[in-house]
Records
---
Amino acid sequence: MTVRAISTLSIVGLLAAPVGRPVNAQTGPQAHWEQYKNQPATPQPDQHLTDPAIVGAIDLHAHHDPDSYPRELDGFDVAKLARDRGLRGVVLKNHWTETAGLAYLARKYATPGFEVFGAVTLDTAVGGVNPQAVRYMVDVVGHLGRIVWMPTHDSEHEVRYNKESRPFVSVSRGGKLLPEVNEVIALVAEHDLALATGHVEPEEALQILRAAKAAGVKRLIVTHPLLDPQFTYMSIEQLRAAADLGAFIEITGGGVIRGGEPSRRALAAIRALGARHFFVGSDAGLVGRENHTDTLVLAARALRAAGVSEADLTLMFKDTPAFLVNLPVRPSQSTAAGGTVWDGVFTEAQASRGEAAYGRSCAACHKEDLLGSATAPALAGEAFFRRWNESTVDDAVQTMKSSMPQDAPNSLEAQAYVDIVTYLLKASGSPTGSVELTADRDRLKLIRVTSAPSR
Ligand code: HEC
């Protein structure tokens, strides 16, 4: 063990260095963040954007202070922002230190009850691909570490790509994964964490995914492979190979909202492979850029405008991230004692029936897209929560039954009104569950409408 540990820790300075190239030469920067330290940037104000796609979402990629160069928000403020905009959770991401401890503090002092998680990235500051860094993250009080990133900014790929002369971390040599990579993979499997591929070569990423799958890792992430060649930059064929291994491909909000090549590549990849292989994280945090939730909202809008369906947005912003941090995909299936519309209180099939009934009896005035017309109000999203927040589902059903359709109130079956409400709920971001919501009024009275999952 001692021998292993020593060889692991020396990987950054010695083993990984190309022969004859002094990695500690005083000529170049010693650290990636050097260039960012004094970068002038004007903070960007909070735009307070909201969207049904982010209500119940989990941001798996939230940069924050404290960091080695200025960030827009600290970890507590990121957690508060995410909670206040209705997210279900957030993973604090730092390239150089573990964040499970910070997640513990955020839950204790900033956002009790909110799902804040930590992670570790195996860059130089934790000794590279260092199994001890993973063991430490796993054991930190609270046990909130969820993601292990392979090397990112200090990856051999990125340092070489940028032709820099600074310490880097290798994951393979001569086409084979290094032993410590397999050791980390085994730890990830043992603790049922998520493994993210970092900024390695595409072929290395695929090797890592294959080894991880073979070792029993269930939660696999390809770190933003659509963004820029400086990072892992994959072709559609490589993405397909990753998806076939069961990996989820990360799309960063920042990449989508600034348009251009990254956004074009992301859309092409979603169309080619299907949204079920992707998830969206903000990757926000840099001073001068949109904050985390604004980034997610703008990304959701851009994807929607490009034709991505609400169901696919739900997968990419909510369900897949929940799976990756090992939370139940739906907040709760147990609704016997009432609860809220965030507890999965109706089924997918029921919402589809509701959609059909809505199309027949309501869409003429409130429109197919639920946005309403000059006379009839919008019925979903923010409008839904503005009208029904703190009411019960029964209130909404009874109001609609007694007054709608405007030209023929109470002309539908009681169950059809309930189904229509489940459709409106689903369109507003509420999760589906495994049990149908019946027209039993005693039951309907127990289910509260809140604009975000309860905490
Ligand atoms: C003929 C046009 C028309 C049809 C069809 C129609 N609505 Fe409306 N609806 C309106 C108008 C106009 C309003 C605003 C005035 C009002 O509240 O009566 C409205 C208001 C509403 C409201 C807001 C009520 C409130 O108290 O805030 C809801 C909810 C609603 N409709 C649901 C439905 C549902 C569900 C259906 C289908 C079963 C439906 N509407 C069919 C025209 C229509």
---
Amino acid sequence: MSRVFHPSPGDGSWRRPPDRSHTERPGIVAGYLAPHPPHLAYAENPPQNEPRSQGGWETLRWAYQDLQQRIKALRPDVLVVHAPHWITMVGHHVNCVPRPRGISVEPIFPHLLRYRYDFRTDVELAEAIADHSSDAGLVTRKLKVDGVRVDYATITALHLLNPDWDIPVVSLSANNNPYYYSSSSLEQMEVLGEATRKAIEATGRRAVVAGSNSLSHLHWDREPALPEDMAAEHPYNHHQYEWDMRLLELIRTGRTRELRAFIPEHIDATESETKAGSLTWMLSALGWPEGIGEVLAYGTVIGTGNAVAAWEPV
Ligand SMILES: [Fe+2]
């Protein structure tokens, strides 16, 4: 694993942010870049996941533990997540099923993630996001079919952000397939982000928005005998690593306008999973805030670059 950042082990109290919840203002209270490699949930050994692990990828998992504390301090009404692996070839879909339940299996790594989920959807907000998106000109659908399996990326990101599952959720599909299409459809993600913000404000919710994608996305085609063998974990190549560092430098120095223009370049250079639009959607929902942005951790998973990052408007 590439250990670029080295948080000290401990109870994390030195990193705990101030309690900003006293204002209780509605709107988006934070945006997080929340990658979803199944390895991270596997390494946590939660009771919902069948496979057992010996750990691994700690740097990223410690950053998620930091986010969990931040989210509890913010006391949001809802977590809104966009992830790349609920792929809808026609239109942007919003999960409006009140209580999704089932087992989510990672199709490439079923030996790592077979996770039993059971959570609540904020249906009023979900429908409002679909309506605002439709009004903004996007092809939009409300998923209301009970029993449809929730994709592993959404489940993994939500578990890592809030393993207690005690905050309602809105889940959005990925209309722009990260593997086949160009990055041109990022324009639609900008519209989807603005529609998400308007729906949150119209319904008076305090919301955390989470864009769930990796960065550089070339990866190994062989797995070590022990999947969590950290001796085998490192960037796919130096080129990918360098481009990830360029993107993270823009985040941590708050240069969001430059980041907006850089994302398509980064996609072309690294096959970045930001191609699915999750990061663009999240930052558009936040209004591309200039001057804020934190990188909590960077690490690789099967060679792909992954960062946990935060934008918390004061
Ligand atoms: Fe992914």
